[in-house]
Specification:
The complex is a heterodimer of chains A (352) and B (247). Chain A is mostly helical and 352 residues long. Helix content of chain A is 38%, strand content 1%. Chain A folds into two domains: 24-192, Orthogonal Bundle (Cytochrome Bc1 Complex, Chain D, domain 2); 197-346, Cytochrome Bc1 Complex, Chain D, domain 2 (Orthogonal Bundle), CATH 1.10.760.10. The chains are: A mainly alpha (352), B mainly beta (247).
């Protein structure tokens, strides 16, 4: 404590000696990501860019921005309109409506554990290379917030509170889009989901039912679900590989990753979504085509469609899938639901 | 004072015994034709059985990469290394510390031996999902080679040539595990002047020697296939060879 006071006094002296015009002090409080024990044990460190460290002030600002419709052209839509905490920061629609009532063509993505996306490829097709970069897009997307950054920055600059909040977070009252993106990214990095029933089972504080345990085995068995090669496991608790695959949805898939790489062997590849929080994130897949978990399981079990780029890990494509029995399907679903994290969607720190 | 003495003694040692860094590089070929990510996703390879196939993913793990000197003292360059040909990672291994120049034999273990193949203990490997489910024996994959092969009717089918510790899971409570990692001795190398040593993998050998691999029969779900794992282990032994050593 004493050390800290001394440190701050020291900064204060420096600050006051170099910035003569301003008597205020910019002293953000570092607030590193709280890494859940399970992740700490099993995974490499999360990614936080050195030019955007997590601070209390930055996170607070990011949260306010995330829930504030001020970023949209007509003040009606915030990030949270399509990334709502009660839906694990996705929405419950097939496609989301932008401010002009226009629909996009992609299912909103849930937001959690993004600092552990080690490849830093964001969006269904991976077109964005960091959380910061991603945060710039919705504001100017015509089927989302349909604004311009010039206007959004002016609205923030004219606001009575924001200039002070930017000063507290970044040491300047001059608001620009880079700082908005940095603050949003800091808040997004705090969205961590690691307390589902299955996490508690791994920590030894919850029991799984016989059906849930059987379902876990269906998930892990190469001869059955063989889901673990792409969707993580008890040893990779992100429950995704954050890579791009064609999982056999269509005979003539849309471009997906190809639209970013220009490589036709990437046709129909989309980012593997985490299977955490499925209870809150219906509908499923990049285009929200499946309304239920049962429909997803039926897809893998008997509904597979082949195409040139289908992932080799998808089994028995010729027969439409591995034909799980009704019991195996029910068990698999029960297991999948143990990865839904009520503590996450109710976390007070994440509510508006 | 102590420091000064240390420094002097270090310097002395250096004068007596020149040291250098060493880099180990990995390259891949199909019967001497180079294979890189650019060769993925097209049916352009023919295995010893006559199956035409493509490669879409190739990752493998080697461990205990070691130089052993004439006095039989082993010098570990790296505990383990994951090569991912599609992601272009793990191609270059640098020794952490300088080593004395001289003649060594280069060896490594393909996969992880029984003592090291422990469930979930390597965070970097967990993070890229290289684990083997506990119900299939646990530990880690040694290799993941995924692709497609041509069926008689010109249709393509998937194959997953996944090498792991062999596990007979017929009785899940009393699984029978058999270590299928193996030591590869690449022979003698002279290490001097920041040497670069190439380790070559001939991918076709996985399908050839001594067991001709019929993809029409052994294509997917090979992880729980105890016998298939033993065949892979036999075929793997002729896969690696020493490439060029510079200088």
């Amino acid at each position: 404590m004493l050390k800290r006071t001394f440190f701050y006094t020291f900064i204060l002296v420096i600050a006051s000696s170099c910035s003569k015009e301003s008597s205020e002090v910019y002293v953000p409080v570092l607030k590193p990501i709280e890494i859940p024990r399970l992740f700490e044990n099993l995974l490499i460190a999360p990614i936080v860019p050195s030019n955007n460290p997590q601070t209390e002030e930055g996170i607070l600002l990011g949260k306010k921005l995330f829930f504030d419709p001020i970023l949209s052209a007509n003040n009606t839509q915030s990030c949270s309109s399509c990334h709502d905490p009660q839906f694990a920061f996705a929405d419950n629609k097939k496609f989301s409506e932008g401010i002009d009532g226009k629909l996009g063509n992609r299912n909103s993505m849930p937001l959690f554990n993004m600092a552990w996306n080690f490849d830093e490829k964001f969006f269904w097709n991976g077109r964005s290379n960091s959380i910061e970069e991603q945060a710039l897009e919705p504001v100017r997307n015509p089927v989302e917030m349909h604004n311009t950054w010039v206007k959004a920055m002016a609205s923030l600059q004219d606001n009575l509170q924001y200039p002070d909040l930017f000063f507290a977070a970044f040491g300047t009252r001059k608001i620009d889009s880079t700082l908005v993106a940095k603050a949003l990214a800091q808040f997004e990095r705090t969205l961590i989901s690691s307390s589902a029933k299955f996490d508690k089972y791994l920590a030894g504080t919850a029991q799984l039912t016989a059906s849930e345990l059987s379902g876990f085995n269906v998930f892990m068995n190469e001869a059955k679900g063989d889901c673990f090669h792409c969707h993580g496991s008890d040893k990779n608790p992100l429950w995704t590989d954050n890579k791009f695959h064609n999982n056999g949805l269509d005979n003539f898939p849309s471009k997906g990753l190809e639209s970013v790489t220009g490589n036709s062997s990437d046709r129909g590849k989309f980012k593997t979504p985490s299977i955490r929080n499925l209870a809150f994130t219906t509908p499923y897949m990049h285009d929200g085509r499946f309304a239920t978990i049962d429909a997803v399981i039926n897809h893998y079990s008997e509904g597979l469609k082949t195409s040139r780029t289908i992932d080799p890990l998808i089994k028995k494509v010729e027969q439409g899938g591995v034909q799980l029995s009704p019991k195996e399907k029910a068990d698999l679903k029960a297991f999948l639901l143990t990865l839904s994290d009520n503590d996450f969607i109710k976390n007070a720190a994440f509510q508006n | 004072m102590v420091l000064a003495v240390l420094l002097v003694s270090c310097e002395k040692k250096e004068i007596n015994e020149p040291t250098t860094f060493v880099t180990v590089q990995f390259s891949h070929n199909w019967d001497e034709t180079a294979v890189t990510k650019a060769d993925f996703n097209t049916v352009k390879f023919v295995n010893a059985n006559g199956n035409r196939l493509s490669i879409e993913r190739l990752r493998y793990l080697i461990s205990n990469i070691t130089l052993t000197n004439a006095e039989n003292t082993p010098l570990q360059i790296k505990a383990y290394n994951l090569v991912d040909v599609g992601e272009k990672t793990g191609f270059n291994l640098q020794s952490d510390n300088p080593i004395p120049e001289g003649n060594y034999t280069l060896s490594f273990t393909f996969g992880l031996n029984a003592a090291n193949n422990r469930d979930g203990v390597y965070q970097d490997l967990n993070s890229v999902s290289f684990n083997v489910p506990k119900m299939l024996g646990g530990g880690y994959h040694f290799m993941q080679l995924d692709g497609k092969y041509l069926l008689a009717n010109t249709q393509l089918a998937n194959f997953n040539y996944h090498v792991i510790r062999a596990a007979d899971i017929t009785d899940p409570i009393n699984m029978v595990l058999q270590d299928t990692s193996f030591k590869v001795n690449l022979g003698e190398v002279t290490i001097k002047n920041n040497a670069i040593v190439e380790i070559k993998m001939n991918i076709s050998e996985w399908f050839k020697n001594p067991n001709t691999w019929n993809l029409n029969i052994l294509n997917t779900v090979l992880m729980p296939n105890f016998n298939a794992q033993l065949l892979m282990n036999e075929n793997g032994k002729s896969v690696f060879s020493l490439g060029t050593v510079i200088p």
